[in-house]
Amino acid sequence: MALTEHLQQIISCNHCGFCQVACPIFRVTGREDGVARGRVALLASLMDGKLPWSAQVEEPLFNCLLCGACTANCFPAIPTPDLILEARQEYLKNQGRKSLHRLLFDHLLPYPPRLRLTARLAASAQALKIKNLLDSLKLLRFLGPDFPETMDIPGQLPLQAFRDRIRPQTWRGRGTSLNVAYFVGCGQDITCPEAALDTLDILKTISRTVEVLPNCCCGLPAETYGDRPVARNMAERNLKLLSAKPYDLIVTDCSSCAAFLKKYPTLYPEDDPRHSVAVRQVSRVKDLVEVLSEHPPARSGRRADLVVTYHDPCHAVRGQKLKSQPREVIKALPGIEFREMNEADWCCGGAGSYALGHYQLARQVLERKVGNIRASQAQVVVTSCPACVMHLSFGCRRNTIPVKVIHLSQLVNRP
Amino acid sequence: MEIGAASFWDRLVRIVGPEHVSFDQTLRTVYSYDASLQECRPLGIVFPKDVQEVSAVAKEATRYGVPIVPRGFGTNLSGGTIPPADGLIVSLFRLKRILAIEPANRRAIVQPGVTNLELQNALAPLGYFYAPDPASQKVATMGGNVAENSGGPRCLKYGVTTNHILELEVVLPSGDKHRLGGPTGDGAGYDLRGLMIGSEGTLGIVTQLTVRILPKPEAVRTLLVIYDQIQAAAHSVSAIIAAGVVPAAMEMMDQPVMRAVEASFPCGYPLDAAAVLIIEVEGPAAGLEVQVQHIRRLCREHNCRDIREAVDQEQRDRLWAGRRGAFGAVSRLAPRYLVADCTVPRNKLPQALAQVAAICARYSLLNGNVFHAGDGNLHPLLLFDPRTPGQLDLVHRAGEEIMEACVALGGTITGEHGVGLEKKAAMRLVFSEDSLAFMQALKPVFDPLCLLNPGKILPDHIHPASPPEPVGPFIAPGDELIPNSESEAAQAIRRAFLVGLPIRPTGSGCQQTFGNLASISAKSDNDHPGFLILKTTGLNQITEHEPATQVVTSGAGLTLAALQAALAPHNQWLPLRPPFCTSRTLGGIVALNAWGPDRLKYGAPRDLLLGLRFVSGQGRIINAGGQVVKNVAGYDLTRLMTGSAGSLGLLTSLTFRVVQVPEICRMLAMVGTEKQLVQVAAKIMASSADPAFVYAVVRAAADSRDLNWELFMGFEGLTDVVHAQVAQARNLVRPILGQEPLVQEYNHWPGPWTDILTSMYTSPYVMRMDLPLEKVMSVTAAVMAFNGWNLLMVDLGMGRLNTGLSTLAGQIWADMSRMISDWGGYAALEQAPDDFKSHHDIFFPDRPDWALSQQLKEAVDPKNIFSPGYGPGRR
């Protein structure tokens, strides 16, 4: 199995335990099976047969946020999230996929129109306050037993997704040279269309043309669930799309998508032809944060004073090593007082769709984050991942703190 | 699961709820290890949320006979948290609150699941810190710190955990809850807190800790000294210590470790150097330059290649991040390691390092060194790959040889990581069978069924030697014996044991009346004729003094004054100035843990003692502790014996850490109103001025009370530092007092307060009260309301109040001591007429832990021959 290839990494954990201080899940549960040292020890036991691949190991394998804080805090830098992903694949092979996962990964995420339609149904139901209808849909029940509560997380969904308003096509920009493709993440598309509109606007100012892509899900949710075949399937669809035209840049404003797009080559063995295709395409992929830092938007004129803090999405700060760039972009904007919050690079607990499956755990991780936000006394929290925006907004709403959570695009493009 | 286990599980579920207990194979797998090389899956894991649940769990475990192992974050390096296969892990993670931070009382109250770093982070914004800082402080819980008596880089200057814990709340397997210690750390009765610290979870489960916190020093400077030869680094360390400079930390790292660290995070270590020292000095900014210059010169004299200084906090943080992460980083060199933890006298460091290298070479083992050089506490890392057959055995054998080599150099087997499972057998290298048997007898006092973390610390199959056949003089009640040797003393005590003759140990006799009135002496009019008086004054030889390591070992009968005279030519002294310091014996001072107001800077006897020897109630010679500054091998009998007032054995030999004589001593003396002076004291205590003592003296007079307040605060040490401290103190005093305080020079020995104490002890009654600092003034006011007080010494640094009284009504004593007890303090009568004593206990009111003290005495002195009746509760 693939895990065996990681044996060297697994045995090089010498149990120093330093990951315990960094792991948001351990800080909540205090349970050794919920921290890198314990997860790696479990993998070692699974591999040498001391522990069977039973349903008992599901929770320790799946309650990891994959935030990567353990690795960043680990002197030998054991890549626990990668090991966990391999183990999840192994687990699915042994225990099988659940039917509702199949629904989501096989029938919804690969098809953006279907996904948007589903979202619109949900949004309408919310707007009409037909909670019972929503409940009876039980569409997302597979995500966890806390389903009724998880419905509070997204808040009121927009009735129209971004790509319902802006048809995927090529738009003329105000720049002179760049031809840019805008890869629209599902989260941004469905939950943050306003931010996506701002992104489009920003991209127009720096490029000659912007093409809004009709891409499907990047595949990260399936990959994190351990469903490598589905992730590959989506990657292939997207790679085909990206290869179609010689874009100068492929930009996404979702740091999670950006980080995963950049990882496409690792989905295939190096001798697989798809690997080299992926390498070629991925070299042009940029997180919007990088684009903004390389092409600072010319924002002149006065803006109202605003106290801003920044939350590092895991996929930006550890996934792509983007730490200083977003802060520099923010600080250069007019009217901004930037205030660093404590533990800005700690996971918010959203972790993509994690919060939907582990509502209670995610909420406790979130509480710590909200405490730090409150302590910063900022008026606005800025971040660059729609899942973080959604989860942080939920946290602020829940604690009734008067803080607005927005995407970086919205701050850059504010009137 | 067995049937018994099933109902046990049900009961646990009822206590903590189903989500907080698990018998799953998966969870048991991840609680089968700590950071050591040991492994064993427990029966289950339980996560109680508070002391009530801990207590209920313990009670159930006792009822079902299930072993329990308390556990924090499981980062133990000696196998101390490895459960037996039928054992239950009690995770204290959920007890993770900081309950109080009280700068004015110089203390913080925390639960055991708080990590050391979390506490530091909470204290830092207030300008305070907690001194022990184990390298793993990020993930080392406070409960674990107590269990292991943790050290850390900074303990070179500040001492280890036991020097900073004031009070512990512990749960015993019976479910009983006890509070051990008190506001100054000591309570009446035995120092069970001291015994608990370092007991590796085998005597009790700590559920709450009160720790001493200190104001952050004004400035810190950090040097990175680079060497081409590791021996040169080791020589520099002993040279710096011998020169009387006390850095806050002196850490060494060799090339293999530096490479592993740099490969992980660039911390700024030179990869081509053989070794580096990280040396940190802290204190008043004005005094640091001279210390840095001193250190630079000494390092150059010992052939360092280069000296760099961290220019800012970021560089400093990086140097320390590398040091603190080193154990994890070495897995880049090999998957696993065994870390030895021996301590050697500092001047033996070069030899110890050479021997470690030779042993590793003989076994063809890759090794790295990263350790607390200033303390002589080595951490050789023996690196290996467990997949190579036979390697684990080799590594263990090499580890044993390293321990043997270090013990042969005068060191010990573990300085801070604990004995756990890995060093049990090696306990025999440092303790006699009799000593091990004495330790073994203590465990059932707390844990009669041996359920708490069983199988740790003590080696299996302890065989006490057959007791000495008493030869020598026949003894009778009322005899006074002055043995000239330890074995002579042991003979006499053995004889007394056989006939059940009670013994009263004494030294110079100046505190002979301390304690309750023994009922046995009430039978006669003469001076305690019922007792065999054992006078230690014949045991008055200094047996070892190594000036370079600042350690002295002496017979217990030597007077402190004689010791100071012997140390003086080496410019050293033992910084103790308790009442009667010029006439008392060392044994007498240790037996009563007697101290003066300078405890603030130097500590009490319990803080300065490294080890001791005594003869037990069965006439056996017991050795405790050792000759090195860091030592966590076995139960801390040194702390247990200190303050036991001659009721557990006869102290025969004492080993102290000594210090360089201060270059200068300056005292600020001032007269003012009570309000002004209390304000001055509070200001000084909250500042970084670091006084050696702060006390007020009040004399009863007919006229206005206010004018009789005098305040004294002293500063002792390097000239530049003291001048800076005095300047800082004057600036604090001036605005409050409206005038300049008097600055006086004084001799460090016997210090400025001997006359006051001597005159206080001319009163028939001397009462001493230990209190949280904030309560001292309220009690002072209460005392001043009595008729009969004539002199008050208010120690505003330590929270101790001493008063001389001409009369004391029994009812007042009872009310007063009860009130003090209610305020979290305790009172005792140092001196009282026999008539008073025959009606009243001089230790009052009763404390629940006295019952434990009593059981402990019965366990080690079965015939109750040592000082019966003198102790708390007249036992």
Protein architecture, described:
The complex is a heterodimer of chains A (415) and B (875). Chain A is α/β, with parallel strands linked by helices and 415 residues long. Helices cover 51% and strands 8% of the residues of chain A. The radius of gyration of chain A is 21 Å and the shape is globular. Chain A starts with 6 loop residues before the first helix and ends with a helix. A nine-stranded antiparallel beta sheet of chain B has the order 32-29-31-30-34-35-33-36-37, with helices on both faces. In chain B, helix 1 (3-16) packs antiparallel against helix 3 (51-64), helix 10 packs antiparallel against helix 24 (719-737) and helix 16 (433-446) runs antiparallel to helix 29 (849-860). Chain B is globular, with a radius of gyration of 27 Å. The A-B interface holds A 11-18, 20-21, 30-33, 37-38, 41-42, 45, 50-51, 56-57, 60, 74-77 and B 24-27, 29-36, 47, 73-75, 91, 93-94, 96, 113, 115, 117, 136, 138-139, 260-261, 264-265, 325-332, 335-337, 386-387.
